[in-house]
């Protein structure tokens, strides 16, 4: 059995490419890296990689992470600039015995030394979004979902190896050097081939308060299905945050266990996931949460898919 699940519709083409590798017997590391690179390279997905939305100084700072569920090896970069595929740099770092999480200038020096492709990741389209946002911010409070979505994936190959990976440009108009949950082990991602893998997207500052990806994998290890583990982790963290702080940010997660079963949960409207398994063609689902905290996954309609791409590729009106 093999499979892959990812956050958001933007991952659909990526998991399709990754599925071709999994079906051919390739490993989960190659599949998840290939899948995330596809998202990073597409300029119209404005929250990941090339064309990602900039920080308040109009710089694109990228975060990415990779974890091997067999060895528990981790690699991550944060606040890295001007490199095309941070996921590949993160995976390379997972091969090191130490220095597995590098940030900013240190990450850039490592990437340059290792020969990774340098690239100006700030596009004209992203600049237009920035200028538009500057105008809006004079009258509105900054919100995390003004263009912020992390692509996160969990992957299982035919040999039972699992991986998890993330990539994002982070919170739009964030402070220079801000790092969210995405490159932080246990928060934005976690993989353990004995149990499963999970990844998260949302308000990183709140996701980190519950180490939510690790919690989901832990719950799967105790026998919960991926769906139950995702719902339990989201509902518990949301309730805890509301009790202690009076509010909870956006929390959305995906998971897959070591048998290829998958799950997704959220506390917001509008969360989507992309899934492919040995028995399921690449499919986009809309995750809807009921009043009882239970989440259902409904296949996205052709009209929804068409509207999604039309919105993403529409001209930016400043």
From TrEMBL:
The keyword Lyase does not apply. Keywords: Autocatalytic cleavage, Hydrolase, Protease. One of its GO terms (molecular function) is peptidase activity. The active site is at 150 (nucleophile). The keyword Thylakoid does not apply. One of its GO terms (biological process) is proteolysis. InterPro entries: Ntn_hydrolases_N, Peptidase_T2. The record marks 149-150 as: Cleavage. GO terms for cellular component: cytoplasm. Substrate binds at residues 178-181, 201-204. This is Asparaginase.
